Amino acid sequence: MSQATFSRARSEEQRAQRKEDILAAAAELLADTRVADLSLTELARRVGLAKSNVLRYFESREAVLLELYGREFAAWLDALEARLAAITARTPEVLAGAVADSAAERPVFAELCAAAPGILEHNISGPVARDYKRALLAHVARLGTLASPWIGDEPADVLVFVGTVTLGIGGIWSTCRLSPGMADAYRLDPELARFRVDFRESLEALLTTVIRGILAGRSGTTA
Prior knowledge:
By secondary structure, the protein is an all-alpha fold. It is 72% helix and 0% strand. It is built from ten helices and no strands. It is globular, with a radius of gyration of 20 Å. The model has no long low-confidence stretch (mean pLDDT 92).
């Protein structure tokens, strides 16, 4: 992480750099920490600021993570777009695999996606919530556009697809991130191993099923 060397941000450029440092520190922490366990105190310590100083730039821990989520969402879409641009096959498995592969490569994005509804959308003001939702709408619209060569552009179909992607990433990721106690239970009782879920494989299977259903509904056949 490239951290600012100045002690106090005085110019707009320095304030912008300080915000970047805070967001970068949050991303680094999430590489090893769940959102629920990431404290504002630890974030401030990582970036070399007092907690009160972090609050000069973001109104809460959740506001920091929501902005990071927006950036991670955009970066994931960039990666997905590049992956899809190299694909000519128009089968459900191809689209589902591209989404699953690119999401699995971005654990910070998946973690934030999982935490967004239940954690990140709380403890924020109306203006922060509004800006977040507007950005999110733009991201999901772009996701629908990227998928349109496979699923078409019928609004109902697009809504089903993008909803399944975002809920699927968040829900499956939450299931895969075991608590220490649950991980120990699986270690103590090998028979429980069948309840473990592979994130990439499960997401691909879910999306393949949904995409097939969308296409079958359009053609009037049974998937």
